[in-house]
């Protein structure tokens, strides 16, 4: 059995949660980076005896459209899948349901699912430092249960929450822009999952392509990209009530 970690994690929070599970499930992991726009995902084909951990962030209660498109190109061929959605302590709404449908359409069989919390990618004070030691202990214990299910041959699918049709997808809205510290090194353009940043002039961003994933902010070595401070303040105010109380991982087996 080969084990794959298929992950869309622009700022690293989703991968951090996914790694906790993946490292408990297999000693040898084949990584598939869904943020890499240069990869031909249609060339990735699993076998029925394989297993995959498929992890995505929740953007406004939905799977990022880019992740849906790229995951849909992978051939699951009956491989078992552990689904992971990661959210910034507000709510994940229909993310797991949409991920379940996308994975099944790609040929995966669902074994387990997790909704985990990580630091909010925009309002970073919410769920700061998560997944933390408490999350790690909970996810490590759950990985043991997943391992037993995989080895037992149990094919029962978990009951995953969510609505169909899914909630309406929200627009990008917050497009990071460079400030005077930008030296046009091009790292942001190279790492952008949707090639929204001009490689010739990284000061130019195509707002119609931007998915507000905040990766350009997280990878900039000069801290030279930021979102509009007024919009950020509005987001912080909007999220304060919903995100202040700690939410725990939700586990589905």
Automatic annotation (TrEMBL):
Q: Does the keyword Transport apply?
A: no
GO molecular-function term, one example from the UniProt record: oxidoreductase activity, acting on NAD(P)H
NCBIfam families per the UniProt record, alphabetical: ferrodoxin_EFR1
Q: Which PROSITE patterns match?
A: 4FE4S_FER_1, 4FE4S_FER_2, FLAVODOXIN_LIKE
Keywords assigned by UniProt, alphabetized: 4Fe-4S, Iron, Iron-sulfur, Metal-binding
Can you name this protein?
Ferredoxin
Extract the Pfam families matched here: Fer4_7, Flavodoxin_1
Domain of life the protein comes from: Bacteria
Q: Which residues form a coiled coil?
A: none
